[in-house]
Amino acid sequence: MRTITLAGVLLVALAFHGAVVSAQAIFVNPGVKLGYTFGDKGGFTVGGEISVTTLPVNASYFLGGLVGLDYCFGAHRTKAHLGLEAGALGVGVDVGPSWVSQVGKSDMGITISPFIGLVLYPYYSTTLMFHGDDIHELGLWGKWPIPVVNNINIFD
After folding, report:
1. Residue 65 domain-assigned?
2. Which helix (H) or strand (E) element contains residue 20?
3. What is d(CA 82, CA 90) in angstroms, rounded to the nearest whole number?
4. What is the reported pTM?
5. pLDDT tens digits for the chain (156 residues)?
6. Cα gap 80→47, rounded to integer Å
7. Does residue 156 sit within a domain?
8. Residue 152 DSSP symbol
9. The CA-based dihedral angle spanning residues 104, 108, 114, 116, taken in that order and rounded to the nearest 10 degrees
10. Which domain holds residue 27?
């Protein structure tokens, strides 16, 4: 499973490179999240993220990369995440490595987060840990797209 996930991340990275070169629009998207992590080491989770997304020329999909940091109050756990994201029509997925630090120990895993929406994104996230228990989370992202490059002409 983890090998298949890594192969998927590499394929998205290759597609992302071509999309940036031929971008019709590029956005920087800062955001905050409020979620709940399930399990006996769970609790309310807050975090922040910044992503860069691109809309390739003549495409109805987006591709992007992100960096995020969150904190789970119940487990006293911090998670840093790098991800690649892709989607279309308000539905997408983010996949990438995460570094988890919890009282006296650290670990790594692969996080997969499907989401839906525009500006407000309900999401589910699972982090498949290399050692230890996996992390499951449900919540809401609030992100605001700031155009950096915008060659979209809605009158074409």
Report:
1. yes
2. helix 2-21
3. 21
4. 0.81
5. 555 555 555 455 545 444 444 578 999 999 999 999 998 878 999 999 999 999 888 888 999 999 999 999 999 999 999 999 999 988 999 999 999 999 889 999 999 999 999 889 999 999 999 998 999 999 999 999 999 987 765 444
6. 10
7. no
8. -
9. 50
10. 2-150
